[in-house]
Structure formats: structure tokens, C-alpha cells
Amino acid sequence: MEAVTAAWERYAAGRTPRRTHNAAGANTWLNWTQYADHGPDESLIGKVEGRHVLELGCGTGCNLAHLSTLGAQCVGIDIAPTQRKKAESRWGHLPNLSFQTAEATEFLATHPDSFDAVLSIFGPVWFTDPTMLLPLVRQSLTDGGVFVFSHKPPQLDPQPGEPLREARAVSRWDHSPREWTSLLASARFTNITADVIDPPDGKHEGTLVVRAEA
Ligand SMILES: C[S@@+](CC[C@H](N)C(=O)[O-])C[C@H]1O[C@@H](n2cnc3c(N)ncnc32)[C@H](O)[C@@H]1O
């Protein structure tokens, strides 16, 4: 786990901060995809105001900050301490928004609260064995609570020169929409949708967005 944390600390140190405003002029927004000003918004979650929301792997907290401004009570966790510092520095003034340094499975296994929504945007759902993580997410959700996550679609043809996955500190679970649907059903989720969203013009890679209910 130390090697994994160190890898995410290096990632955090190398990231440039998100813009202060998006193309629509907003200073907070929720972005499920790897492209700016693209993809669905918070409506994927359903009702936001008054909801208790957990984001796994929240990074610098920009997506969660948006939900806080819409009236949600938000908790963001991230394995990298640097991300919590950045998130608190940028969004510490917002109400009902807190950040913690924690590993996703450890947090879920030890945290007594229930959540109305759990999110992971290119976060730990992509980097954690789903047979461990999904049951923990399921048990942390209120009845009818929603679980929404996104990541890049599985790459069928690895690029030449791409390092072998086994050689990396961080593992990745590149499941297809069909595989996620089956895994989520096995973990007792219902109303599961899993789709690859088209990329914006000029880009080739879509985004896998998965939604399920407890
Ligand atoms: C690709 S970044 C995405 C950050 C953010 N969700 C966003 O969209 O900007 C992945 C984040 O997940 C965090 N992370 C990865 N594995 C984790 C784990 N097992 N538990 C908690 N956080 C994790 C990393 O530290 C990193 O901040």
C-alpha cells in the first residue's frame, strides 16, 4: 500500500490545477469525463440538495465542491495526503464539505455513516479489486442510494511501448460495460446502466460511465 500511496502522491504533485471557470463561466462544475466542457452533469446522481454524498478518490475536490454549492453534504476521501491539502486550500471555505486522507476500502469498511450517493470519477473503482470494493460501497449506501463512476473504456489494443500492467505500482480494473453490469448485479446493485459516452469532436476515446442503485 505504501508504494501505491507514493505513486498517487507523485501523481498529485504533477497535476495542474483545474481552471477557475469553465466555458459556461461557472466556477464550480461536475465533470465525469477526461475532457473539459464535455459529458453529463450532476443530473446523473438525481436529487442533490440535502443528500449525503461520498466521493472516493476526490483529488483536489473540484467535483465535490460543485455538489456542495448545490446543497449536498459532502465527504471526499483520497489516498494521497497532498490531494487533501490542495482540496482544503481551494474549497475549505465551502459549507458541508470535508476531505480526509484515506484508502477507499479501509474508509468504507470502518465508516459507520450511510450515503445517498457514492461517486468515483477516474477514481478507486478503476484501481481496486471490485470483488472487494463493490460490496463495501453497496453496504455504505442508503436504500435506493446511487453509485456512479467513470473511467476510460478498456483498451482492446494496448499502445506500443505501454508498460506491462504487472510492472506498475497501481493496478487497474479495465472492465467493459457488460462486465461491470455483471459485477454490480453480483454485489446486489439494481437498475444498472453502463455506457461508453462519445468523445468530443476531434477526439477518439470515449468515457465509460456506470450508474447503479442500492
Ligand atoms: C485520476 S485521479 C482522479 C481525481 C478526481 N476524481 C478527478 O476527477 O479529478 C485518481 C484519484 O484517486 C485517488 N486514489 C486512487 N486509489 C485510491 C484508493 N484506493 N483510495 C482512495 N483514493 C485513491 C488518487 O490519489 C487520485 O487523487
Automatic annotation (TrEMBL):
**Organism source for this protein?**
Streptomyces luteireticuli
Q: Which InterPro entries match?
A: Methyltransf_11, SAM-dependent_MTases_sf
Q: What domain of life?
A: Bacteria
**Record PANTHER family:** TRANS-ACONITATE 2-METHYLTRANSFERASE-RELATED
Gene3D superfamilies from the xrefs?
Vaccinia Virus protein VP39 (3.40.50.150)
Q: Name one Pfam family in it.
A: Methyltransf_11
Methyltransferase type domain residues are 54-149
TM spans, by residue?
none
- Output this protein's name: Methyltransferase type 11 domain-containing protein
